[in-house]
Amino acid sequence: MKRWMTVPCRVPDHAAAAAAAERQDTLTKPPGSLGRLEALAIQLASLQSRKRPRVDRVHIAVFAGDHGVAAEGISAFPQAVTGEMLRNFARGGAAISVLARELGATLEVVNLGTVNDPGDIPGVRRDIIASSTGNLRHVPAMTDDELDAALDAGVRSVARAMADGAELYIGGDMGIGNTTAASALACALLGEKPETLAGPGTGLDKQGVARKAVVIADALRVHAAADTPRDKLRHYGGFEIAALAGAFVNAAQCGLPILVDGFIATTAALAAVALRPDARPWMIFAHRSHERGHGRVLDALQATPLLDLHMRLGEASGAAVAVPLLRMACTLHGSMATFAEAGVSEA
Q1: What is the dihedral of CA 250, 256, 260, 261, to 10 degrees?
Q2: Which residues are catalytic?
């Protein structure tokens, strides 16, 4: 295990949470009338050690990597799309590029390795591990060194976010074949059957989903001896999934709140919590993806997402869409008048 992985995660500030809850009770509204927006403000106060939290400075990191399992025909799109999308991110044409601009968020795109390497692209950080993971149907997805490199890539991303003064960290993914890898990893971590978690991903039909489930079932048999969370992440995961897991653990160690995206990111969060259970309090879950297995993974993490918009794009897009909710929660909490300030009678 990497030495940094043994460092305990920060403990949320319960005094700040109590102060925020006390403020909520004095605002000009019936108690609880703003529902989960109140709870969000209190949670963010505890994570930021602020009576009045803010999420003005948002850092979004999208990790990209190719998967050897794509050779099994488990995606509706060709593997070349991973590398091609890196250019689209950099040019500002991808959904997360548009959303980041709208939010005024910092967006970094990290290339961990693609089969069709696009080379140096302005706006894309090269952190190459290999051109692809191994085909998890037959061999481990990563070697020990590759897994460590992917985890460390996540740590470096968090360091950049902290240096930028981020108040919220969002991790996203890009990689043809990654719903297969995430489904296999979730099956291994939760003891679920592939038929339960395998979904359409990029748009597979019923036959394609059935084929994906067979590939995952084969992988589960081949890698049945992988019994620790680290081993499961190495055998079934992807470069971007491991980088997200590393980032989530390190963000919790640094005391940086995390807004978790959809199925891929939530599976990475599941792996992160398996590696370091004390990372869980630092995670807020943005949305319920339309991908079949997402609900089961959310349940395993005892997570109630903020939104359910039938999204399944990845790229951190669902998390980005949820940022305005967090900002509204903070604005209401910090800017509403108290009963005393407004001269309004209390209940």
Answers
A1: -100
A2: 315
